[in-house]
Design brief:
Layout: E1 5-13, E2 24-25, H1 28-41, H2 48-63, E3 69-76, H3 90-98, E4 103-111, H4 114-126, H5 128-143, H6 147-189, E5 198-202, H7 203-208, H8 210-221, E6 226-227, H9 246-252, H10 255-258, H11 262-266
Parallel strand pairs: 1-3, 1-4, 4-5
Antiparallel strand pairs: 2-6
Helix pairs in contact: 1-2, 4-6, 5-6
Length: 271
């Protein structure tokens, strides 16, 4: 909208494809200032009186940049250690801007097969440190010529595997529960937002039809999105089919358990 400040809020669990929108062209100057204001506004240590002052500043910067397109993004959870206070609250974010008539806010809700998003998140955050240590020792064994040193490194590797075997198992269980809790949160809170203010998409479907989806999002949001399609990184889910934790997740995320996310599933826009 040319007569509004346009703000796209991208939300989803870790591993659901936030990177797809990383090549969208936005207006840098107000974005960086607004992002800092929002981060401070939703910060745990910001007092109610400070929020009032920040809200005025957010109002001013959006009011002074009519016609501009900006984007905020939140994954649930965000990084490690996990905390529900790190990401912007979905409903609070809507309520903040809903009072500003000059702001056109629109949500893009990202979803993905929860088995694949869990494995993506677990491999990135929860199992990665252990795997890196293991790989580092293996490289040392390969490069060390001294026989005694090689034997000692192999013993160290064996001890590491034994010590961290249980932690690796705990990591995938932790990741699966975390994804489940976060997806439940998104599933519940998005229902509190007016339907015309969001679109729910699925990563594998949007990757195949990215240009068409951008057009659909533009029509629904009334926001012009400029995107460099050539630099979009496509996620390959087939690599997870051979992951050692795949079978555990297939059993954990049974058809009955997946029913708790029915609202998201039934309202996902597919091409």
């Amino acid at each position: 909208m040319q007569n509004k400040f346009n703000l796209i809020f991208i939300i989803g669990c870790e591993g659901t494809g936030h990177h797809l929108f990383g090549n969208c062209e936005l207006t840098p100057e107000p974005y960086h200032v607004l992002h800092k204001l929002l981060t401070t506004y939703f910060n745990l240590n910001t007092t109610p009186s400070e929020q009032i002052d920040l809200k005025k500043k957010i109002y001013e910067i959006t009011k002074n940049n009519i016609g501009v397109v900006c984007m905020e993004s939140a994954s649930f959870p965000y990084g490690r250690p996990t905390s529900p206070l790190i990401s912007h609250d979905i409903l609070s974010f809507f309520e903040l801007f809903n009072e500003m008539d000059h702001v056109n806010l629109f949500y893009i809700v990202l979803t993905r097969n929860i088995i694949f998003s869990t494995l993506s998140s677990a491999n990135r955050f929860d199992c990665l440190k252990i795997d890196k240590i293991e790989m580092k020792i293996k490289m040392k064994i390969k490069n060390v010529k001294d026989k005694t040193k090689r034997i000692n490194l192999k013993k160290k590797l064996k001890k590491l595997k034994s010590k961290y075997c249980d932690i690796k198992n705990e990591s995938i269980i932790f990741s699966s529960r975390l994804q489940e809790n976060c997806l439940n949160y998104i599933n519940s809170q998005i229902q509190l937002i007016p339907k015309e203010k969001y679109i729910i998409v699925e990563i594998s479907n949007i990757q195949k039809n990215i240009k068409e989806f951008i057009k659909i999002i533009e029509q629904k949001s009334k926001i012009k999105i400029c995107c460099n399609y050539n630099n979009i990184r496509i996620s390959d889910d087939s690599k997870y089919l051979t992951d050692k934790n795949y079978d555990y997740l297939v059993n954990y995320f049974s058809k009955n358990r997946l029913k708790q996310f029915n609202f998201l599933k039934e309202n996902t826009y597919l091409i």
